[in-house]
Amino acid sequence: MKGKETFSSRWGMMLAMLSLAVGTGNVWRFPRIAATNDGGTFLIPWLIFLFAWSIPLLMIEFTIGKSMRAGPVDAFGKLIGSRFRWMGLWVAFTATAIMFYYSVVTGWCLRFFVATLTGEIPDAVPGAFWHGFEGSWQVVVVHIVMMAAGAGLVYRGIRGIERVARILLPALIVLIAVLMVRAVTLPNAHIGLNFLFTVHWADLANAEIWLQALTQNAWDTGAGWGLILTYAIYARGREDTSLNAAMIGFGNNSISLMAGILVLCTIFSIQPDAATEIVGAGNNGLTFIWVPQLFSQIPAGQLFMAVFFLALLFAAFTSLVSMIELATRVLMDRKIPRRRAVLIVGAAGVIFGLPSALSPAFFNNQDAVWGIGLMVSGLLFAVAVIKYGANRFRDVLMNTGDSDFLVGRWWRPLVFFVLLEAVILLVWWLSQTISQEGWAASLNPFADWSLGTVLLQWGAALAVFIWWNRRAERGKFAHD
User: Fold this and answer.
1) Confidence of residue 299 (pLDDT cuts 50, 70, 90)
2) Is the pLDDT of residue 225 over 60?
3) What is the CA radius of gyration of the chain?
4) What single-letter DSSP state applies at residue 235?
């Protein structure tokens, strides 16, 4: 790696990787999903899938990135053959498609943080500020600001990303810890704690709780997104794959648990009679409608509301940066200099993020289509390892002298289990897109949420990816 970009230390690398894993899903989705899936009962499968989904995929991504030293497209080609670059292109495009609307989410966080400082959020009317803001020109402005800020950081290279992660991630943890301590000291906060940590053992027979727990691991750890693979390109020569993956997984889920404590303790302390309504309001409703309402009712609530949205902004921004870096790395692998690649990605992010900024319906559509697309990405990583040879992958690429305990027989069946989990998740989530109004409504390709819109967009993307791959194989886009 002499003369190449690398992280300055393992500590710097781990902070950067954990900062990409910790995003808005930890702070706004985990508390809601845990609350709507029987609280403490949900935590058991959630912890199991940390070991059965997140950590194995994090290990796979870290190993591929460190070994192949290329972004997802070329990494898949180097690992299992150039005719399978389309698989890496799917992984890269899915994360990039999410980037287009995730910058909008990051902009929301910025706007609400500013609004808490200026006192613009009214105390009396839940959602008044949000409904006036959603879909307005202000969303476009903050979307552009956050996309420009993220691209500007990626423009500085991996060391620039590392330096910012060294500041923002510890700050994020401190902010969430402060909020959690305040939440558990509120009157009747024990009701929220009891709800979050009480296990109803009979409810473990509910398959949906297990599927939601698996989905939460898939969406909030960054496992299978291609982001860890991208950062692992810049890892130094000697890194313990399994230890790093475990630290990322446990660190990420610990922050989710802290967020769950702070949100649920606050809800059950301030408005226990509306707890079901609040946690059932969706990610946006919980965060941008009810959180301001809740914080307005506690002493120094304006201050704690500002701390909450600052923490959410840090979480969103560091994840956005990793998505920009991934897209940039794909272009760099095409021999495009970093600075030019960043400008291309930044411009594309601004332009293709505009529909999600202006239309909540379009935003929800893209979130559904490419959120489910992440399940395909996880599937493709498992398929790639199986094609390469799971045991060979472990012995040749993983066990490089830094991770010697990975010689057990459990690795191969675990990879096949990840493959099975991905298939189950895909079938389940696609079944959620089938409308009760019948197949005509379900196959409508222009609906916000339907099987038709998912299959149309996936099919179009795959057709382009496979066409490109075949052209590349014939030397039309030669690159090695």
Assistant:
1) confident
2) yes
3) 22
4) -
- pLDDT exceeds cutoff 60 at 3: no
Q: Which one, of 352, 361, 440, lies nearest residue 99 by Cα?
A: 352
Whether residue 326 lies inside any domain: the answer is yes
Residue 139 scores a pLDDT above 80: yes
Alpha carbon of 361 to those of 3, 244, 282, 302: distances in Å? Answer: 47, 38, 14, 31
Say yes or no to pLDDT of 420 above 70: yes
Q: Among 214, 298, 307, which Cα is nearest to 259's?
A: 307
CA atoms within a 13 Å half-sphere pointing along the CA-CB vector of 112: 33
Which residue range forms the structural domain that includes residue 208? 10-359
Tell me phi and psi for residue 162, to 5 degrees.
Answer: -60, -45
Between CA 295 and CA 311 the distance in angstroms is: 15
- What is the pLDDT, as a whole number, of residue 401? 63
C-alpha distance from residue 423 to each of 161, 380, 419 (Å): 34, 11, 6
Percent of the chain with pLDDT over 70: 96
Apex 467 CA angle, 463 and 469, nearest 5: 120
> Is this model's pTM higher than 0.90 or not?
yes
> Alpha carbon of 57 to those of 60, 177, 370, 421: distances in Å?
5, 28, 18, 12
Q: How far apart are CA 425 and CA 430, in angstroms?
A: 8
Element of type H or E holding 357: helix 338-358
Dist. CA 380–CA 370, nearest whole Å: 15
Q: If you average pLDDT over every residue of the chain, what do you get?
A: 91
What DSSP character marks residue 22? -
Residue 48 pLDDT exceeds 70: yes
Q: How confident is the model at residue 291 (pLDDT cuts 50, 70, 90)?
A: confident
Neighbours of 454 (CB within 10 A): 21
- CA proximity to 40, closest of 189, 201, 183: 201
What token pair was written down for 272? 């226990």
Residue 227 has pLDDT above 50, yes or no: yes
Residue 301, in any domain of the structure: yes
The residues, any chain, with a CB within 8 Å of residue 314's CB and separated by 6 or more, are 168, 169, 171, 172, 175
Q: Indicate whether 312 pLDDT > 60.
A: yes
Residue 386 inside a domain? The answer is no
**Token digits of residue 147:** 């996309």
**CATH code, domain with 243:** 1.10.4160.10
| 333 occurs within a structural domain | yes
Residue range 231-243: mean pLDDT, rounded: 86
For 5, the token pair is 């970009």
Q: Does the CA dihedral 131-135-137-141 come out positive or negative?
A: positive
> Cβ of 134: how many Cβ atoms within 10 Å?
16
| Number of domains the chain is built from | 1
